[in-house]
Structure prediction request, 410 residues.
Amino acid sequence: MDREPMRFLLIDDVPSQRWLLRKRISQKWPDAGIEEYDPEKSGVPGPTFPWHDYDIVLLDYDLGLDQINGLELLSRIKGNANPPMVIMVTGQNDENLAAAAIRKGADNYIAKYDAVTNLFFETVAEAVKLREAALSASKPGRGEFGNWEIPGFRPLAIISKGVTTTLRCERIADHKDVILKVQLVGKGDSNQALLQRFILELNILADLKHAHVIEILEHDVTQNMVYYATEFMPRGDLAMRLKSGPVTVAEAVGIVAQVASGLTALHAKGIVHRDIKPNNILFKDEKTVVIADLGIAKDLSSLDALTLVGEILGTPYYMSPEQFNGRPIDPRSDMYSLGAVFYQLLAGTVPFVGNSFMEVVYKHNYDPVPPLPAELSRFQPVVEKMLAKAPEQRYSDLSELLATLIGVRM
Prediction:
């Protein structure tokens, strides 16, 4: 299948560096369109700069400008509808800078001196592959979703597949990148409980507006599908953030407090999330998080039993003992899962690990919470109460947890 040439933009204040990047890209991708931007000469790109005209931007950290650096420009780029992929390039191999770039939405990071190594080709090739896949999926009749008719949306990439499929899409009306969750409805659908759970998620999100719960932008039910669109969060999730390095104690407490606030709003509507974990905690900006993926939430006020008999939903490292054991759940189950996340943020690892699923289950049910590092021992009583085996031994609600966190010395 013929592919259109990639369109590169090189942003660097040093002409020799732009020349080197151009030469290296041309060696591997001779048909690529390559443009250069000199920030010292042209200044900071304005709000109408056509970022959507490019597929991949190689962005220097030091732009030679007093008013802005590459990280700040990166935030502006990723704040646009349908932004290009961005590889941050810097003159020093600084892990902290790399982590900061990833947090702000960079798709990858490379040091300038690696421009002459194979690592440069590997890094750019990965970006090209991902971009080509997204472009292929977005064209009618091409790609896995080319024949889907999703009113008002153009699919860009598959995030996950299953009974429910999650896509990254462009909303055609305003060219805004969104996340689309789609549940196909076929005649004689044999798993109505899963479909019912999906529609429940739709109704919950449509009715809830909270700073720390992901916002639903629009939704619909057609003859052959149920779908809804939420904001796309280019800064990724907490799991991605943790891969780039540990967080500070203040950041850990801030993240937990925000998630607790969002969960309080859900619990007030009688909803238990059931799957709190780093992958479902997304960054709206560098410091603000939102709870996402209510696909296995349970409406406690519903008369219908939405949990299938014998079905375990959730992720074992963060699941409460009552979820493993099939016992009734309530908001304290989310508190337990948040406790596992809090422990991981502080200690750098989940509280209970094992060589098998059943070993993890056993530890959740019977093992004491491992001690935190000595310098964080002041938080030990907090995580132990959040991770109490019996729900009645945990905090009565998340408001009590928030009050406790305020009283713990940072």
The longest strand covers residues 176-184. The chain is about 35% helix and 20% strand.
